[in-house]
Amino acid sequence: MSTGTATASNGPAVDPAEIAALPKRMIETWAAHDADGFADLFVEDGTLILPGRFQQGREAIRAFMAAAFQGPYQGSRVTGQPIEIKPLGPGSVALITEGGVIPAGADELPASAAIRASWILVHRDGRWRLAVYQNCPRDLPA
């Protein structure tokens, strides 16, 4: 994983392990199908963008994930690894990850489900949270 400068001037030190902990928490909340925990990864006015979906605000994200965990994501798991961390300014970081949703009953991530994601993190109230999460397919058919 590559990282930019170690600090964003006038902001908190950017500890790569602390930043990488956010995807781990997402994996844990997803495994538990915990819509509340998932939504809590976001700031109050956070944004979740998935292919064909746009959710604005923590409550909308919570409601969307609660329904998704009972519907298309039921029994699924998510995986992801940080690829790059880029400090953007005081208290803000861009994180690029690669991973995807492992369907219910599958042992590994199908190549067709692989994604790359952009995470814009902000440091608020002593912790890093998502301001924006967006993903797209890793590979497109030729």
Automatic annotation (TrEMBL):
Domain DUF4440: 19-130
NCBIfam families given in the database record: SgcJ/EcaC family oxidoreductase
Superkingdom of source: Bacteria
Alphabetical list of InterPro entries matching this protein: DUF4440, NTF2-like_dom_sf, Steroid_delta5-4_isomerase
Name of the featured protein: SgcJ/EcaC family oxidoreductase
Gene3D superfamilies tied to this protein: 3.10.450.50
Chain segments annotated as transmembrane: none
